[in-house]
Amino acid sequence: MTATPSPDAIHSFARAAHARFGPKVAVTDADAIAPWLTDWRGRYQGAASLLLQPGTTAEVAELVALAAALRVPLVPQGGNTSMVGGATPPADGSAAILSLRRMNRVRRIDPDAGIAVAEAGVILSDLHDTALAQGRRFPLTLGAKGSATLGGLVSTNAGGTQVLRFGTMRGLVLGLEAVLPDGSVHDGLAPLKKDNRGYDLNQLLIGAEGTLGIVTAATLGLVAALHSRAVAWAGVESPHAALALLRLFEAATDRLESFEIVPAHSLGLVLDHIPDTRAPLSAPHPWHVLIEMGASDAEQEPPAALIERLLATGLERGLVRDATIAASEAQAEAFWKLRDSISEAERASGPALQHDISVPVAAMPDFMIEGARAVEAAFPGTSAGAFGHLGDGNVHFHVRAPAGADRDWAKTQSAIISPFVHDLVVAAGGSISAEHGIGQMKRDELARLSSPARLHALAAIKQGLDPDNLFNPGKLVTLAPRRAGQ
Amino acid sequence: MTATPSPDAIHSFARAAHARFGPKVAVTDADAIAPWLTDWRGRYQGAASLLLQPGTTAEVAELVALAAALRVPLVPQGGNTSMVGGATPPADGSAAILSLRRMNRVRRIDPDAGIAVAEAGVILSDLHDTALAQGRRFPLTLGAKGSATLGGLVSTNAGGTQVLRFGTMRGLVLGLEAVLPDGSVHDGLAPLKKDNRGYDLNQLLIGAEGTLGIVTAATLGLVAALHSRAVAWAGVESPHAALALLRLFEAATDRLESFEIVPAHSLGLVLDHIPDTRAPLSAPHPWHVLIEMGASDAEQEPPAALIERLLATGLERGLVRDATIAASEAQAEAFWKLRDSISEAERASGPALQHDISVPVAAMPDFMIEGARAVEAAFPGTSAGAFGHLGDGNVHFHVRAPAGADRDWAKTQSAIISPFVHDLVVAAGGSISAEHGIGQMKRDELARLSSPARLHALAAIKQGLDPDNLFNPGKLVTLAPRRAGQ
């Protein structure tokens, strides 16, 4: 279904782009391109003889129109931090990489209106800093914040550990500018709180992984800067107790920023493998939760007092075994380090398969217990466990290799074990991709597990907007062969 | 581009539907159909010889598949309260009406999770009552709440006067079930807080006015029931002062439910024409704002105290001329009656053209002043004014007839004056449809004023998902002729 470019289409394109924009925009030096051909985790190796680095939306539009005329596929790329190979070009060298990194201006900040208009290449931590300098906060954050760019964060509907209060990117995008596959520019930057002019193109582009449009800028919501925060660590009996505690907090306040769950096993690995870590509570507990709550200036009760009050209620109701509130910012950071080091500690302890999945929050405790049990029964010797964002129903479900497994275990077993895990997720009404997207890695699983309605709709939308399959081909959507006559 | 059904396709369809589902589902009695052929405001007259009333999603799917096979267009209908002719069938009688009203079950309420799963035919006020019985609130409300159904509210991304805190339907829909034009069922009801499995079909269906899918059920977010509310009325100098006051409130609290603006002229009309109304403040003011704030149990400061404190700051800063807080629920209702009666009072005072438009909140004060001035200069004798939801940038911009104009003034002038108003809106970066949608009424204006990118994208999405243009034809989207070979 893809229009096959003629073998030298990419070379014609490179020549034309070079002639029009010069070597700063049209890069053909293999050494300069090499770092952008492999994904962040080193799982996918692509090839490309052309790297485009436009500096403006108009340049992006012109390059896209040129590529469309020559039928050259484009792979948009920001910080290249995809966890699913979403920004790696195809291995056959047919596509050009279109990097947005040079488009890194924050065009405008309006702190009173709570709005920033920023280009796709702005790095997340730079936006954090820019907002903070104006007394505002861009509330989304994640591990790759020093590399990940806004265009990629929008295109993957990024989440992270702090989405409870203000949501994922989908909830923070107030406007978008994007270049569509025909080279036309969609200017949807105006932050309209009510706008019912038909299909919401901005929402469609969020999470589309660059397959429908290349995001060039976004209008993003800013919130009041945090005046203070409090971080607590609690030991609980089970994920069910953790959920009941979450409900207790949710009923009492909408200031909850994070609610993370950590099993004893994961905490143990961190304490064993990560230097300078210690358990926050003196006794062992089967499960732990990390709770963060914030306050802006105007709010009355300090977050530490509110957490303490609610934890006390949790203790009374038997939901909490023991708990402590970080007494300092350093201790708060130490609690977070325990949570954030789990993946690293697991890697140090042996091979594991990781799954970024979600189920409805109410279904999560059962899924964590029964899902792990099912995996361990089906694959004797493995141990399975989940940790992560209980508050938003998104856990990282890890299956660890049997003792003595070799380093290739994950590679050889993923084709067997991951589909088994995904089947469990689907049976629980969940999603096989909570926050990392589909990219290359999960494309076939998405095709295997989606309803005919969803699969047909994804392909129909893609074919409607990008009939020649030129935007990020091979990612996310599986295209059906065209019907005869089309 | 539309597949023209054979003249008797609708009759074949009626016979088949009747044979399969009986007369309760396939209604052909003209008297029973008649009430659903005209829009709520009586502006559009349609024709249909068949009204379908399925009772389940499976029945909807089967009817859609049958209609697709016979190429019979379907017009989905809920409470038939569209303000833009969005649910009125075409006048040529080629389409069947598919009413969702019999699908009126609330399938499930989970007060702890803050979730209701309700069918498309559930009437908004019934959902309010059902939620309240469980100590929860569905926070969206609007004038037609006694008739409007959830399917229509989803399909038009309904707003209303109370969207500041929890947003429009788009922000309240946690999951959707819909039948697509090929008869397949999209089951996206699971309330996943993080789900990145490609294009967000739920978000695409919200606001699509039934042109891409027929919404059969929705998972909706519920919030804590209001423990108390406070409503204040303030006199201000200008829309600019009103905006500054809004910012003061927004900076201090996220509990603001409504922030409405009313010009002196509109208040005067209400006091003149609506019985049992009186001005809340003793002296006249050029502009007024109505502010509502709520509190759930757990919050500390009572809303009346918080409003009073913030209004005092507003007085100090010269943003407020005078203000009063409703001393009772009856007085709060009386304040709201002033706001809610403006349209009725205007109708009593003479012909007017109404426009449901939005601009970025920060741009609204200038737009209100300068837009009115521009209209009055261009159309001597008219007077223009705006009132409504300042907090979400959505005002109702009314152009009143010159003195002595006849009752047909609006009909004859709308083709000249409304495009002029819409041009001003577009120049201000706004939307020609803030909350009412496009339907039939604004379809040509949407086509005239949208960017090529937007127009192309809307048509491409529609043609991808509904290639035979069978779902609500003639509404929202203007289809381009197909390219040769397709």
Automatic annotation (TrEMBL), chains A, B:
It comes from the Bacteria. One of its GO terms (molecular function) is FAD binding. The keyword Heme does not apply. Keywords: FAD, Flavoprotein. GO terms for biological process: respiratory electron transport chain. Residues 44-225 form the FAD-binding PCMH-type domain. Gene3D superfamilies: 3.30.465.10, 3.30.70.2190, 3.30.70.2740, Vanillyl-alcohol Oxidase, Chain A, domain 4. The keyword Flavoprotein applies. Belongs to the FAD-binding oxidoreductase/transferase type 4 family. This is FAD-binding oxidoreductase.
